[in-house]
Design goal:
Elements lengths: L5 E5 L4 H11 L4 E6 L2 H13 L3 E6 L5 H14 L5 E4 L16 H27 L5 E5 L6 H4 L11 H20 L6 E5 L17 H12 L10 E3 L2 E2 L3
Parallel strand pairs: 1-2, 1-4, 2-3, 4-5, 5-6, 6-7
Antiparallel strand pairs: 7-8
Helix pairs in contact: 1-7, 3-4, 4-6
Bound molecules: NADP nicotinamide-adenine-dinucleotide phosphate.
Length: 241
Amino acid sequence: MSEQTIALVTGANKGIGYEIAAGLGALGWRIGVGARDPQRRDAAVEKLRAAGADAFGVPLDVTEDASVEQAAQLIADTVGGLDVLVNNAAVPGSWPQTASTMAPATVREVMETNVIGALRVTNAMLPMLRASRSPRIVNMSSSVGSLTLHTMPGVDMGQIPVAYLASKTFLNALTIQYAKEFRLEKILINSGCPGLTATDLNGFSGDRTPGEGAAIAIRLATLPDDGPSGGFFDDAGTVPW
Ligand code: NAP
């Protein structure tokens, strides 16, 4: 394993994922830019390299078994291992998305990317992560997945697309269960919430910049060995499950 920390960020061609890649690249890490579209991936790698980051492209569609397996192989063959995985790729899903109106296909679409995609990528990368000295996994979640906040008297979460929010609840459940499984291992895994950030995902309606949204992922990717695992955090501290 090289001395340089190696990270893979899924959905790193734009938005918060791009800024996570840029932030980790600025630490001198080698950054795999996981992205499904070749032009968007190449453009992101070029931009990161121009900014001084040691970035390389990783063709990756998190919904496809073969693509994820090939991504793991490419990383093993070209950089020889992986220390940090950031499961960032996600889709909001099509509308309508109230519980009473959404189509089963919408739920499947969102879960396939936001939950099964993270599971698929994590499990494919696990052998390399287990061989790392300080492995970290960050699941980019959202406070909209917090059942505590949704049921707290006096808290109005607004109109959140239901399939999307449930995908983040499910992702958080995975974070907890992975952490339990890893309790005797070195791997630290946590969920992070970037806050409402102006990106394609929400029609650029957020009040935070993608760079601000990336900060929590960078913090969780760089936790010390005695850092937390199985937690849910944003920039202000702990988010309730
Ligand atoms: P974004 O700008 O829409 O970016 C999403 C990224 O995911 C894009 O790179 C997209 O690639 C990629 N992606 C989607 N499906 C994929 C697939 N099947 N395989 C590989 N990549 C795929 O969204 P964002 O706002 O930066 O979101 C980043 C993360 O933060 C997500 O997990 C999101 O749920 C979370 N989050 C965002 C907010 C917010 O306010 N923005 C709030 C809370 C949590 P393409 O360009 O190919 O589509």
